[in-house]
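re: ur question from yesterday

yeah so i grabbed the chain u mentioned. its 438 aa long if i counted rite. heres the sequnce exactly as i have it in my notes:
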Amino acid sequence: MKLGFISFGGPAGQIAIMHRELVERRRWVGEERFLHALNYCMLLPGPEAQQLAIYIGWLLHRTAGGIVAGAFFVIPSILILLGLSYAYAAYGNLPAIAGVLAGFKPVVVAIVAEAILRIGGRALKVPAHFVLATAAFVGIYVFHVPFPLIVACAAAIGLGLSRALPRFAGKNTKEEEPNGRLDLTNGPQDATGSQLRTAIDDRAPAPHHTLPSGKRVIRVLAAGLVLWVAPLILLVVLKGRDSLYVQEYRFFTQAALVTFGGAYSVLAYVTQAAAGSFGWISHAQAIDGLALAETTPGPLIMVLQFIGFMAGWNHPAAQSQIASGTAGALVATYATFLPCFVFVFAGGPYIEMLRGNKSLTAALSGVTAAVAGVILNLALVFGATVIWPDGITGGTNWFALLVSAGAFIALRRFKSDVVWVVVIGGLIGFTQMMIFRR
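ran it thru and got these structure tokens back, copy pasting raw so excuse formatting
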């Protein structure tokens, strides 16, 4: 819970905090075990920091430990973002709050633009990667190809190209590259330079409960299926088969299974559907949600909770907006994080089999290349919404353009902390609104 309240800074910042607390300070796990778990979690769809918390809890105290660690890592952000979502929906039209949001939005455009360069710099290593990224962008931007289909095609192409192009396959990276920014090469030592004793050190044999077992995997998958089906049946009985909550439950489950590339890629997919075919929210609301998630501790993928809340708030049916929004938020959150627990509990014992698998690495190399094109689509959609709100012919929002350019320079050139950039953007927007009101 402590980490859940202080885990700002995106995946890299969260993993740095976890390493400092769990490896260096509390010495619950050894250095190599921590990295071993991290490498596995980075191969999975979903938020790697959340999955790493589940993994370490499971390693130390079996399934119950994984549930406790994983749940309390996100509970603080669930509660905080729920409060922020209500404040946004209920009071977002007030001049002061509208001014803050006017400063948030162009900063979000800069954040996504900087993410393209950061992720693209790691994912696009050979010409084939650029071709895949371009094809993914054209597919989602021009032809509106569903994101899951893009992921499946990119994985298949990556697997095929790896046989003809040995350099095609590279290390899989997600929204952040923790090993590139953290110093995780040396374990904790005492004053004499000796290795400190840990609860489960790097030389200790694997705990008995971590040994692979086919029966255990079947039990985990069966339990996960029950935990997924039971709420679905309850929602169908209480709200109806075609209700908003049943649609959200199915949709966010699907999103949770294709979130390779981090929160920005899944947000592109979710925005395409939620602001498009479903009509749950607007593009402007999606931008505001990302800004709120950036200033909230916990996984950045919590932006999906905001989208679930706003979908319920905008379409309350026969109940109050706050009840509908809260229900939508909780449905989205449950569907998003349940697969994380199943992935870790079922796949954890087979981590050694997954690491170093060349075919898997090649497939994920194709996915990460395609993700760069998908995020470019997200940047264009957000940028057009914020900088040209009435279309290119309707005039340019010069305030948004200048704030976005300044935020991009701060993030790219000066490596400023994203939380402070968002906060300063909000203060600038608030100041501008107060000046013009006078």
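noticed a couple things. Residues 48-91 form the longest helix (44 residues). also The chain has one domain: 80-183+213-437.
anyway ttyl
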